[in-house]
């Protein structure tokens, strides 16, 4: 399995490469131009093989902190956004300088969650990235840290990179960090921790192996595992690897057994459901009975009012809501056909009763299966 899965990386045509702050900024000491130069060399090698590459780059805040002479990451949002504004220009200039000698152009793409929440803006971002790739440009993507707030952010660039992989139907997502990959225990505290070379992204046992990130970046193995699972929705292979290793991108693209490879046996989801997966902020919650849980998670059915036992939150028609089982564990997410107020009136009732209850005729489903994605 390892050989064939690694071999699949040798034919992966479209890559998303995510760069962590720690390796990009020498653990907060400022931008590492040596690393960026080495990365550019690897990316150019892939481009010369006819492969397409999008870089999702952390480092704007960390670079800004270094330029502002700050030793620790501030907690105030305005200070973080000021650091991002200072650091973003340095970050893009560094990439442009590294790629310029080879003749490759870079393009800066700043995204926020609002850019994917709207279906039209999501498709526009997809078209823009596709056009840049068609023209041989290397997009440098980052979250728009200068204006985004905690309530509407992607959360970390691992998640952003996975969503970009979904957005442009990437074949591979490579997350470069300062760790060798995913271990079966924390290697900082467990001396005999073992590196996992390959695993199914949806293996439930992986959840107990990850830990939260460092103070420098917002990510960590928790977010990287989440990103690998999100990338799997579009069928992309994902790899976590040590970005400090010489020519690591080239080696992985050549099938070398380096880092942790996440595979998936699930079929890629349709484009609309990949878009639904990019919506990160539910407005409410529906509690499902056992029959509805089985129908939604195993049979791929729509969610009918009769299978819902409770409604929480204040949401409107078309808003994203969580679907949880009787124990409160999330099993799906989807776009509600009814507001929270109307959904409460329909609890446990047959679809045929909707018009009589609400006074108007509507969809027979609370959430149609086309607007529903399973998360378990």
Descriptive account of the structure:
This protein is an alpha/beta fold and 376 residues long. The chain folds into two domains: 270 residues, Carbamate kinase (3-Layer(aba) Sandwich); 93 residues, PUA domain (Archaeosine Trna-guanine Transglycosylase, Chain: A, domain 4), CATH 2.30.130. It has 14 helices and 13 strands. The strands form two sheets. The chain has an eight-stranded mixed sheet, sandwiched between helices. A hairpin with a 5-residue loop joins β11 and β12. The longest helix has 23 residues. The two termini are 24 Å apart. About 2% of the residues have low confidence.
In brief:
This protein is 36% helix and 18% strand. With 376 residues, the chain is an alpha/beta fold. The longest helix has 23 residues.
Give the biggest beta sheet. Answer: 8 strands, mixed
Low-confidence stretches: 214-219
Task: State the CATH topology of the largest domain.
Answer: Carbamate kinase
Helix fraction bin = 25-40%
Radius of gyration: 22 Å
- The number of strands is 13
Topology order in helix (H) and strand (E) letters: HEHHEHHEHHEHEEHEHEHEHEEEHHE
The total of helices stands at: 14
- The proportion of strand residues reads 15-25%
When the domains are counted, the total is: 2
Q: Give the strand order of the largest sheet, numbering strands 1, 2, ... along the chain.
A: 3-4-2-1-5-7-8-6
Mean pLDDT: 88
Label the structural class.
alpha/beta
User: Quick one: overall form?
Assistant: globular
């Amino acid at each position: 399995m390892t050989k064939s899965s690694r071999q699949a990386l040798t034919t992966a045509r479209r890559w998303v490469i995510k760069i962590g702050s720690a390796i990009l900024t020498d653990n907060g000491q400022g931008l590492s131009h040596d690393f960026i130069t080495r990365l550019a060399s690897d990316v150019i090698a892939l481009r010369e093989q006819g492969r397409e590459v999008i870089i999702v780059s952390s480092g704007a805040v960390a670079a800004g902190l270094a330029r502002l002479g700050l030793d620790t990451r501030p907690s105030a949002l305005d200070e973080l956004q000021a650091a991002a504004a200072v650091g973003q220009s340095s970050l893009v200039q560094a990439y442009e300088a590294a790629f310029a000698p080879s003749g490759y152009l870079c393009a800066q793409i700043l995204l926020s969650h609002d850019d994917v929440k709207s279906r039209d803006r999501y498709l526009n971002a997809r078209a823009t990235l596709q056009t840049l790739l068609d023209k041989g440009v290397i997009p440098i993507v980052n979250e728009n840290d200068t204006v985004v707030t905690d309530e509407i952010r992607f959360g970390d660039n691992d998640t952003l990179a996975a969503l970009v992989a979904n957005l442009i139907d990437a074949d591979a997502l490579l997350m470069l960090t300062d760790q060798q990959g995913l271990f079966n225990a924390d290697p900082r505290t467990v001396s005999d921790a073992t590196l996992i070379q390959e695993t199914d992204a949806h293996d439930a046992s992986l959840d107990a192996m990850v830990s939260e990130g460092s103070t420098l970046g917002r990510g960590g193995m928790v977010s990287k595992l989440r990103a690998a699972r999100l990338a799997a929705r579009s069928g992309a292979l994902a790899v976590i690897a040590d970005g400090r290793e010489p020519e690591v991108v080239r080696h992985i693209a050549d099938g070398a057994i380096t880092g942790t490879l996440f595979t998936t046996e699930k079929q890629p989801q349709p484009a609309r459901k990949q878009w639904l997966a990019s919506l990160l902020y539910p407005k409410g919650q529906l509690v499902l009975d056992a029959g509805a849980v089985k129908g939604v998670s195993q049979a791929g059915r729509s969610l009918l009012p009769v299978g819902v036992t409770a409604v929480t939150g204040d949401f409107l028609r078309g808003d994203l809501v969580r679907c949880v089982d009787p124990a409160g564990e999330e099993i799906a997410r989807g776009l509600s056909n009814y507001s929270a107020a109307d959904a409460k009136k329909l609890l446990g009732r047959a679809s045929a009763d909707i018009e009589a209850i609400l006074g108007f005729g509507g969809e027979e489903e609370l959430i149609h299966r086309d607007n529903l994605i399973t998360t378990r």
